[in-house]
Amino acid sequence: DWLPFRDTHVHELARHDGWADLSEVCIRCGNAPSAYKCDECYGPTVYCRACVLADHARLPLHRIKHWNGTFWQPILLINLGLSVQLGHNGAACPSPVTFEAPLTVYHTNGAHFVKVSYCQCGGPAGGYLYPTQLLRATWFPASLTRPRTVFTFAVLKHFHHLTLQGKTTAYDFYNSLVHETDNTGIKPPPKRYDEFCMVMRWWRHLKMLKRAGRGHDPDGADATQPGSLAVECPACPHDGRNLPENWQAAPKGDA
Ligand SMILES: [Zn+2]
Ligand SMILES: [Zn+2]
Ligand SMILES: [Zn+2]
Question: Which residue numbers delimit the CxC2-like cysteine cluster KDZ transposase-associated domain (predicted)?
């Protein structure tokens, strides 16, 4: 059934590498020339520079490509001028602080460089801690004082599922993210394998505490009793739950 469609399907795949019949005019504003597309957003949509930036203000981990006249060339949103404000639910902060070096963000689609502004206006004096601001953006910091690398909650959750289901190692998963970022190997992202392993151990531990309800105990994680994080086996006999009443009086041997 499939063989007669080999050529058409190969052509359809190749079509995404060229301009094909894309609109010469930005599909969003309708008046500027289009030259940008996003590999993550839906559809064969092409934008002008201003519109691709506006559409990705809250999607800073999408991969953008620029038509250079010959082929689609990857371009970073940070180089188009995108910056992310933490705190204030993404709205402007009256007292932001921005570090010169961009934040390295590892996500399910690879590594990104993101220009991040922290909030310094609210909470305790000097603003609440930078790692806390990152955690509220669902980005897990790899260090606590002045984080330079984060892993999205999504990538940690994704690896957790993969390693439980497929026994995928952290090393293999991490390298798949490197390939996602740049499959040519010419521009590999900053190496953060050790950081990934450390954060992943921390993530599993925190999830275990959370699932056992430790976050709701006023005495905190330190009051965790031995064995209280274990998952009970539902098939094992538990008195008062899945055993018949008066089971102690049952005759020994087969029923
Ligand atoms: Zn436009
Ligand atoms: Zn997008
Ligand atoms: Zn602020």
Answer: 77-185
CA distance 117 to 140: 16
Centre of ligand 2 to C-alpha 162, Å, is 25
CA of 151 to the centre of ligand 3 (A): 23
Whose atoms come closest to the Cα of 42: which ligand?
2
Tokens read off for 132? 């806390």
Q: Cα(152) to centroid of ligand 1, in Å?
A: 29
C-alpha of residue 120 to centroid of ligand 3, in Å:
5
Q: How high is the ipTM of this complex? A: 0.93
- How would you label 11-37 residue by residue, b for 16+ Cβ within 10 Å and e otherwise? eeeeeeeeeeeeeeebbbeeeeebbbb
Residue 105 in 3-state DSSP?
A: strand
Using CA atoms, how far residue 164 sits from 26, 107, 152, 167, in Å, is: 44, 19, 19, 6
Q: How far is the CA of 54 from the centre of ligand 1 (A)?
A: 9
pLDDT at 214: 92
Specify the pLDDT at position 254. Answer: 66
Ligand nearest to the backbone CA of 60:
2
CB of 39 closer than 8 Å to CB of 63: yes
Residue 231 CA, ligand 2 centroid: distance in Å: 40
How many angstroms does the Cα of residue 36 sit away from the middle of ligand 1?
A: 10
The residue behind tokens 């959750």 is: 157
The predicted pLDDT at position 255 comes to 57
For the chain, the structural domain boundaries read: 7-78, 82-217
> Mean pLDDT, to the nearest integer, of 118-143?
83
